[in-house]
Amino acid sequence: MEGTISPLCLRSSSSLSYFSSNLSLDSHRTLGFTTSVDSLRPTNLVRRSSSLRMFLSPPRGSLRTPTISVEEVRDVPMPKVDKSGRLSSPRAARELALVILYAACLEGSDPIRLFEKRINARREPGYEFDKTCLLKYNHMSFGGPPVKTETSEEEDELVRHDENESKIEAEVLSAPPKLVYSKLVLRFAKKLLAAVADKWDTHVVTIEKISPPDWKSAPAGRILEFSILHLAMSEIAVIKTRHPIVINEAVDLAKRFCDGSAPRIINGCLRTFVEDRAATPTPQALESKQEVPV
Protein backbone atom coordinates (compact mmCIF):
# COMPACT_ATOMS: atom_id res chain seq x y z
CA MET A 1 0.00 0.00 0.00
CA GLU A 2 2.83 2.32 -0.83
CA GLY A 3 1.89 5.96 -1.00
CA THR A 4 -1.57 5.46 0.51
CA ILE A 5 -3.43 8.12 2.47
CA SER A 6 -4.10 7.00 6.02
CA PRO A 7 -7.71 7.13 7.30
CA LEU A 8 -6.30 9.19 10.16
CA CYS A 9 -7.54 12.17 8.21
CA LEU A 10 -11.08 11.12 9.14
CA ARG A 11 -10.45 11.20 12.87
CA SER A 12 -13.03 13.20 14.80
CA SER A 13 -12.18 15.22 17.87
CA SER A 14 -13.29 13.31 20.94
CA SER A 15 -12.20 16.27 23.05
CA LEU A 16 -15.46 18.10 22.36
CA SER A 17 -17.56 15.09 21.41
CA TYR A 18 -17.78 14.19 25.10
CA PHE A 19 -19.84 17.25 25.92
CA SER A 20 -22.00 16.95 22.83
CA SER A 21 -22.69 13.31 23.62
CA ASN A 22 -24.01 14.32 27.04
CA LEU A 23 -26.60 16.62 25.49
CA SER A 24 -30.03 15.30 24.68
CA LEU A 25 -30.76 14.21 21.13
CA ASP A 26 -33.33 16.97 20.78
CA SER A 27 -30.84 19.62 21.84
CA HIS A 28 -28.49 18.45 19.10
CA ARG A 29 -31.15 18.49 16.42
CA THR A 30 -33.08 21.63 17.20
CA LEU A 31 -31.17 24.17 19.20
CA GLY A 32 -32.82 27.52 19.70
CA PHE A 33 -30.33 29.52 17.67
CA THR A 34 -31.22 32.41 15.44
CA THR A 35 -29.10 33.33 12.48
CA SER A 36 -26.85 35.89 14.16
CA VAL A 37 -23.61 35.82 16.10
CA ASP A 38 -25.40 37.36 19.07
CA SER A 39 -27.74 34.36 19.30
CA LEU A 40 -24.90 32.00 20.16
CA ARG A 41 -24.58 33.33 23.69
CA PRO A 42 -25.63 31.13 26.65
CA THR A 43 -29.13 31.71 28.02
CA ASN A 44 -28.03 33.69 31.04
CA LEU A 45 -26.84 36.35 28.60
CA VAL A 46 -29.68 36.37 26.09
CA ARG A 47 -33.28 35.23 25.72
CA ARG A 48 -33.32 32.56 23.03
CA SER A 49 -35.84 32.65 20.22
CA SER A 50 -38.14 29.66 20.00
CA SER A 51 -39.48 30.61 16.59
CA LEU A 52 -36.30 30.08 14.61
CA ARG A 53 -34.43 26.81 14.88
CA MET A 54 -31.40 25.56 13.08
CA PHE A 55 -30.03 22.07 12.59
CA LEU A 56 -26.60 21.78 14.12
CA SER A 57 -24.11 19.20 12.95
CA PRO A 58 -21.84 17.47 15.49
CA PRO A 59 -18.27 18.74 15.96
CA ARG A 60 -16.35 18.63 12.72
CA GLY A 61 -13.61 16.08 12.16
CA SER A 62 -10.02 17.15 12.66
CA LEU A 63 -7.13 16.24 10.42
CA ARG A 64 -3.85 15.17 11.98
CA THR A 65 -0.62 17.06 11.57
CA PRO A 66 1.63 15.73 8.75
CA THR A 67 3.82 12.89 9.98
CA ILE A 68 6.89 11.37 8.39
CA SER A 69 7.31 8.32 10.57
CA VAL A 70 5.63 6.42 13.37
CA GLU A 71 8.45 7.39 15.73
CA GLU A 72 7.78 11.09 15.12
CA VAL A 73 4.12 10.61 16.04
CA ARG A 74 5.20 9.15 19.37
CA ASP A 75 7.81 11.84 19.97
CA VAL A 76 5.49 14.67 21.06
CA PRO A 77 5.81 16.90 24.14
CA MET A 78 3.54 15.84 26.98
CA PRO A 79 1.72 18.29 29.25
CA LYS A 80 3.06 19.07 32.70
CA VAL A 81 1.32 17.74 35.80
CA ASP A 82 1.68 18.97 39.35
CA LYS A 83 2.86 16.98 42.36
CA SER A 84 -0.60 15.49 42.78
CA GLY A 85 -0.52 14.21 39.20
CA ARG A 86 -3.08 16.70 37.83
CA LEU A 87 -2.82 18.87 34.74
CA SER A 88 -1.42 22.24 35.76
CA SER A 89 -0.65 24.24 32.61
CA PRO A 90 -2.49 27.39 31.48
CA ARG A 91 -3.26 25.53 28.24
CA ALA A 92 -5.27 23.02 30.25
CA ALA A 93 -7.30 25.86 31.78
CA ARG A 94 -8.01 27.45 28.41
CA GLU A 95 -9.00 24.10 26.93
CA LEU A 96 -11.34 23.38 29.84
CA ALA A 97 -12.91 26.83 29.56
CA LEU A 98 -13.43 26.33 25.83
CA VAL A 99 -15.10 22.97 26.31
CA ILE A 100 -17.39 24.39 29.01
CA LEU A 101 -18.31 27.45 26.90
CA TYR A 102 -18.95 25.25 23.86
CA ALA A 103 -21.24 23.00 25.89
CA ALA A 104 -23.04 26.00 27.39
CA CYS A 105 -23.77 27.34 23.90
CA LEU A 106 -25.08 23.96 22.79
CA GLU A 107 -27.27 23.55 25.85
CA GLY A 108 -28.26 27.19 26.11
CA SER A 109 -27.07 27.22 29.72
CA ASP A 110 -25.05 29.49 31.98
CA PRO A 111 -21.33 28.65 31.51
CA ILE A 112 -20.46 29.44 35.13
CA ARG A 113 -23.29 27.27 36.43
CA LEU A 114 -22.33 24.50 34.02
CA PHE A 115 -18.74 24.75 35.26
CA GLU A 116 -19.89 24.50 38.88
CA LYS A 117 -22.19 21.62 37.99
CA ARG A 118 -19.31 19.65 36.53
CA ILE A 119 -17.05 20.48 39.47
CA ASN A 120 -19.60 19.38 42.05
CA ALA A 121 -21.07 16.42 40.18
CA ARG A 122 -21.23 13.22 42.20
CA ARG A 123 -19.10 10.37 41.01
CA GLU A 124 -20.80 7.19 39.96
CA PRO A 125 -20.42 4.33 42.45
CA GLY A 126 -17.34 2.29 41.66
CA TYR A 127 -15.87 4.88 39.30
CA GLU A 128 -12.08 4.96 39.18
CA PHE A 129 -9.93 7.29 37.12
CA ASP A 130 -6.61 6.09 35.77
CA LYS A 131 -4.26 9.02 36.35
CA THR A 132 -1.67 7.54 34.01
CA CYS A 133 -3.91 8.84 31.20
CA LEU A 134 -2.82 12.37 32.11
CA LEU A 135 0.80 11.54 31.33
CA LYS A 136 -0.25 10.45 27.85
CA TYR A 137 -2.78 13.20 27.19
CA ASN A 138 -1.50 15.56 24.51
CA HIS A 139 -2.71 19.17 24.32
CA MET A 140 -0.64 19.66 21.18
CA SER A 141 -2.42 17.15 18.95
CA PHE A 142 -3.21 19.49 16.09
CA GLY A 143 -5.10 19.11 12.85
CA GLY A 144 -3.41 19.10 9.46
CA PRO A 145 -3.34 17.50 6.01
CA PRO A 146 -3.88 13.74 5.59
CA VAL A 147 -0.93 11.57 6.59
CA LYS A 148 0.86 9.71 3.80
CA THR A 149 2.21 6.26 4.69
CA GLU A 150 4.61 4.02 2.79
CA THR A 151 3.42 0.60 3.99
CA SER A 152 0.25 -1.00 5.28
CA GLU A 153 2.05 -1.85 8.53
CA GLU A 154 2.89 1.81 9.10
CA GLU A 155 -0.69 2.78 8.33
CA ASP A 156 -2.04 0.22 10.79
CA GLU A 157 0.35 1.45 13.47
CA LEU A 158 -0.70 5.05 12.94
CA VAL A 159 -4.37 4.07 13.12
CA ARG A 160 -3.78 2.21 16.39
CA HIS A 161 -1.90 5.20 17.77
CA ASP A 162 -4.73 7.52 16.76
CA GLU A 163 -7.44 5.31 18.23
CA ASN A 164 -5.51 5.03 21.48
CA GLU A 165 -5.10 8.80 21.64
CA SER A 166 -8.84 9.26 21.10
CA LYS A 167 -9.59 6.88 23.97
CA ILE A 168 -7.24 8.80 26.24
CA GLU A 169 -8.89 12.10 25.31
CA ALA A 170 -12.34 10.68 26.01
CA GLU A 171 -11.18 9.27 29.35
CA VAL A 172 -9.59 12.53 30.46
CA LEU A 173 -12.39 14.85 29.37
CA SER A 174 -15.17 12.66 30.75
CA ALA A 175 -13.52 12.40 34.16
CA PRO A 176 -14.53 14.63 37.10
CA PRO A 177 -12.52 17.86 36.70
CA LYS A 178 -11.20 17.72 40.25
CA LEU A 179 -9.41 14.48 39.37
CA VAL A 180 -7.92 15.91 36.17
CA TYR A 181 -7.05 19.56 36.81
CA SER A 182 -5.10 21.29 39.56
CA LYS A 183 -6.83 23.89 41.74
CA LEU A 184 -4.90 26.62 39.94
CA VAL A 185 -6.20 25.43 36.56
CA LEU A 186 -9.78 25.24 37.82
CA ARG A 187 -9.58 28.79 39.20
CA PHE A 188 -8.12 30.13 35.97
CA ALA A 189 -10.75 28.37 33.84
CA LYS A 190 -13.54 29.85 35.96
CA LYS A 191 -11.90 33.28 35.74
CA LEU A 192 -11.84 33.00 31.94
CA LEU A 193 -15.53 32.08 31.83
CA ALA A 194 -16.41 34.98 34.13
CA ALA A 195 -14.48 37.32 31.84
CA VAL A 196 -16.41 36.03 28.83
CA ALA A 197 -19.73 36.68 30.57
CA ASP A 198 -18.60 40.15 31.62
CA LYS A 199 -17.60 41.21 28.10
CA TRP A 200 -20.10 39.23 26.03
CA ASP A 201 -22.28 42.11 24.84
CA THR A 202 -19.31 44.27 23.90
CA HIS A 203 -17.46 41.48 22.14
CA VAL A 204 -20.51 40.31 20.19
CA VAL A 205 -20.52 43.71 18.48
CA THR A 206 -16.79 43.47 17.82
CA ILE A 207 -17.01 39.95 16.43
CA GLU A 208 -19.78 41.07 14.10
CA LYS A 209 -17.34 43.60 12.66
CA ILE A 210 -14.17 41.52 12.40
CA SER A 211 -15.39 38.00 11.55
CA PRO A 212 -15.78 36.87 7.91
CA PRO A 213 -19.23 37.03 6.26
CA ASP A 214 -19.53 33.26 5.81
CA TRP A 215 -19.08 32.75 9.56
CA LYS A 216 -21.77 35.31 10.36
CA SER A 217 -24.17 33.84 7.81
CA ALA A 218 -24.06 30.40 9.50
CA PRO A 219 -23.13 31.05 13.16
CA ALA A 220 -24.46 27.73 14.47
CA GLY A 221 -21.79 25.98 12.42
CA ARG A 222 -19.05 28.15 13.94
CA ILE A 223 -19.75 27.85 17.65
CA LEU A 224 -16.22 26.62 18.31
CA GLU A 225 -14.63 29.46 16.42
CA PHE A 226 -16.75 32.13 18.10
CA SER A 227 -16.11 30.55 21.50
CA ILE A 228 -12.36 30.74 20.92
CA LEU A 229 -12.67 34.40 19.91
CA HIS A 230 -14.74 35.24 22.98
CA LEU A 231 -12.28 33.51 25.31
CA ALA A 232 -9.23 35.17 23.77
CA MET A 233 -10.74 38.65 23.55
CA SER A 234 -11.98 38.46 27.14
CA GLU A 235 -8.61 37.26 28.43
CA ILE A 236 -6.92 40.22 26.73
CA ALA A 237 -9.52 42.79 27.84
CA VAL A 238 -10.29 41.60 31.38
CA ILE A 239 -7.44 39.43 32.63
CA LYS A 240 -4.84 41.55 30.81
CA THR A 241 -2.71 38.64 29.62
CA ARG A 242 -0.20 39.83 27.02
CA HIS A 243 -1.86 39.60 23.62
CA PRO A 244 0.92 37.64 21.83
CA ILE A 245 0.47 34.82 24.35
CA VAL A 246 -3.31 34.86 24.06
CA ILE A 247 -3.28 34.92 20.26
CA ASN A 248 -0.83 32.01 20.08
CA GLU A 249 -2.96 30.01 22.51
CA ALA A 250 -6.14 30.78 20.56
CA VAL A 251 -4.55 29.72 17.28
CA ASP A 252 -3.39 26.47 18.88
CA LEU A 253 -6.91 25.78 20.17
CA ALA A 254 -8.25 26.42 16.67
CA LYS A 255 -5.68 24.02 15.19
CA ARG A 256 -6.75 21.40 17.70
CA PHE A 257 -10.52 21.72 17.55
CA CYS A 258 -11.41 23.48 14.29
CA ASP A 259 -10.80 22.76 10.65
CA GLY A 260 -9.80 24.46 7.42
CA SER A 261 -8.73 28.09 7.60
CA ALA A 262 -10.09 28.71 11.11
CA PRO A 263 -6.65 29.12 12.77
CA ARG A 264 -5.57 31.70 10.20
CA ILE A 265 -8.87 33.60 10.42
CA ILE A 266 -8.88 33.61 14.21
CA ASN A 267 -5.32 34.91 14.17
CA GLY A 268 -6.36 37.76 11.86
CA CYS A 269 -9.50 38.59 13.86
CA LEU A 270 -7.58 38.80 17.13
CA ARG A 271 -4.84 40.95 15.64
CA THR A 272 -7.49 43.33 14.33
CA PHE A 273 -9.09 43.34 17.78
CA VAL A 274 -5.76 44.22 19.41
CA GLU A 275 -5.02 46.96 16.87
CA ASP A 276 -8.46 48.50 17.36
CA ARG A 277 -8.01 48.47 21.14
CA ALA A 278 -4.65 50.20 20.81
CA ALA A 279 -6.17 52.87 18.57
CA THR A 280 -9.10 53.51 20.93
CA PRO A 281 -8.37 55.87 23.85
CA THR A 282 -9.06 54.38 27.27
CA PRO A 283 -11.44 56.17 29.69
CA GLN A 284 -8.42 57.06 31.84
CA ALA A 285 -6.65 58.62 28.86
CA LEU A 286 -9.72 60.65 27.95
CA GLU A 287 -10.04 61.92 31.51
CA SER A 288 -6.39 62.97 31.60
CA LYS A 289 -6.81 64.93 28.35
CA GLN A 290 -9.82 66.75 29.78
CA GLU A 291 -7.96 67.84 32.89
CA VAL A 292 -7.15 71.54 32.89
CA PRO A 293 -3.61 72.30 34.07
CA VAL A 294 -3.45 74.62 37.05
Can you describe this structure?
- The structure is a single chain.
- By secondary structure, the chain is mainly α.
- The protein has a domain at 4-197.
- Helices cover 58% and strands 1% of the residues.
- It is built from 14 helices and 2 strands.
- It has helices spanning 14-22, 25-29, 70-74, 90-107, 111-120, 132-136, 152-174, 177-180, 183-210, 213-217, 223-239, 243-257, 262-279, 283-290, and strands at residues 4-5, 148-149.
- A two-stranded antiparallel sheet has the order 1-2.
- Helix 1 (14-22) runs parallel beside helix 4.
- The protein is globular.
- Belongs to the NusB family.
- Keywords: RNA-binding, Transcription, Transcription antitermination, Transcription regulation.
- This is (rape) hypothetical protein.
Describe the structure concisely.
The N and C termini lie far apart (83 Å). This protein has helices spanning 14-22, 25-29, 70-74, 90-107, 111-120, 132-136, 152-174, 177-180, 183-210, 213-217, 223-239, 243-257, 262-279, 283-290; strands spanning 4-5, 148-149.
Topology of this structure?
Elements (H helix, E strand, L loop, with lengths): L3 E2 L8 H9 L2 H5 L40 H5 L15 H18 L3 H10 L11 H5 L11 E2 L2 H23 L2 H4 L2 H28 L2 H5 L5 H17 L3 H15 L4 H18 L3 H8 L4
Antiparallel strand pairs: 1-2
Helix pairs in contact: 1-4, 1-7, 4-9, 4-11, 9-11, 11-12, 11-13, 12-13
Overall number of strands? 2
Strand order of the largest sheet: 1-2
Helix content, binned percent: 55-70%
Mean pLDDT: 76
Quickly count the helices: 14
Q: Give the termini distance in whole angstroms.
A: 83 Å
Radius of gyration: 20 Å
Summarize the main sheet: 2 strands, antiparallel
Element-level helix/strand string: EHHHHHHEHHHHHHHH
Structural class: mainly alpha
